[in-house]
Design a protein that fits this description.
Layout (H helix, E strand, L loop, with lengths): L1 E7 L3 H4 L1 H14 L2 E7 L5 H11 L4 E6 L1 H11 L7 E6 L5 H6 L5 H7 L4 E10 L2 E3 L2 E5 H5 L5 H7 L1 H12 L5 E7 L2 E7 L1 E5 L21 E6 L4 H12 L9 E6 L1 E6 L4 E4 L2 E5 L2 E14 L6
Parallel strand pairs: 1-2, 1-3, 3-4
Antiparallel strand pairs: 5-6, 5-16, 7-10, 7-14, 8-9, 8-13, 10-11, 11-12, 13-16, 14-15
Helix pairs in contact: 2-6, 3-4, 8-9
């Protein structure tokens, strides 16, 4: 019988995970899997569990939880000699990876879709010893996300991050960046640098409308001027998927990017605290196989 490891964060999604646990186990059973349940209790558990599934050559890793749990699970699979098939039920605030892959944000719908899912190879990115699936941010917005409270996330969801970002972008100073990439070099002052892997960033699905989960590219957005009038204009363009056409935004599409700043600057990796500059980001193309709804598969 095929073996599945089911990684669950019992406290995620307003503690809804236990409600859906049995539904997932039943679906996996119908798919022919014998399921081993692993519940996370602390940071890093999901990464350790997923790495253990690789070592013991499980056939499938299923994760259920918030953005952090999904990110940790992918990190446990990354660069392993053997990687099981992966999928997940999103119970987070933003759920960008699920949005990009067409996985329903309704847990029951996402569980039901498992049995008709198809395999898609997707990109992830590596920076230092960390991995991400959606976004690395530098500058005002990156630091602003640390000020979002759990209460704001519960009430406002993705808009909580946007509101904090608005405050920061209209007050912070610009930073001098040197960016080396496989298409050339960019240098200058900017308020914000975003390196996106998917079209969905912060819950907004039109930041990088041309980004595909398997195109092998980072989509770099450099915001050079974010005074209030410019930001209002850019916010409108973001909503209709035309941010890259704004005169205050430079866009670079590259397989790898090295970033330097005059002073060390913190980055944010998929919503979590990351490294200080300098560092290099590298795309690992079509690195993991994910079970997704049929409409998103090749």
């Amino acid at each position: 019988m095929k073996r599945a490891m089911f990684i669950i964060n019992p406290s995620s999604g307003k503690e809804e995970a236990p409600v859906y646990k049995e539904l997932v186990i039943e679906a996996l059973s119908r798919m022919g899997f014998e399921t081993e349940l692993r519940e996370t209790a602390k940071e890093g558990d999901a990464t350790r569990f997923a790495a253990d599934a690789c070592k013991n050559e499980f056939d499938f890793v299923m994760a259920m939880g918030g953005d952090g749990t999904i990110n940790e699970s992918v990190a446990g699979l990354a660069e392993q000699p053997y990687k099981p098939l992966f999928s997940f039920i999103p119970l987070g605030t933003v759920n960008d990876f699920a949005r990009a892959l067409g996985i329903s944000l309704d847990p029951e719908e996402a569980i039901a879709a498992l049995e008709t899912g198809v395999v898609k190879k997707v990109d992830i990115a590596k920076v230092g010893d960390r991995y991400f699936m959606n976004i690395l941010a530098l500058g005002a917005l990156a630091e602003a996300t640390y000020h979002v409270t759990p209460e704001q996330k519960t009430k406002l969801g993705a808009f909580a991050y946007l509101l904090e970002g608005l405050k920061a972008l209209t007050h912070d100073e610009e930073t001098y960046f040197e960016i080396e990439h496989d298409q050339g070099r960019w240098e200058g002052e900017a308020k914000l640098v975003l390196a996106a892997l998917t079209n969905s960033v912060g819950g907004f699905e039109k930041l990088a409308p041309d980004a595909q989960t398997d195109d092998g590219l980072l989509h770099l957005y450099i915001v050079k001027n974010a005074a209030l009038p410019a930001f209002v204009r850019m916010a409108g363009e973001l909503m209709i998927g035309r941010l890259e056409h704004d005169p205050a935004v430079d866009v670079i599409h590259a397989k790898s990017v090295s970033v330097k700043t005059k002073e060390p600057l913190d980055c944010n990796i998929d919503g979590e605290a990351g490294f200080k500059t300098p560092f290099t980001i590298e795309v690992l193309p079509k690195h993991i196989e994910v079970l997704v709804p049929p409409q998103d598969a090749d």
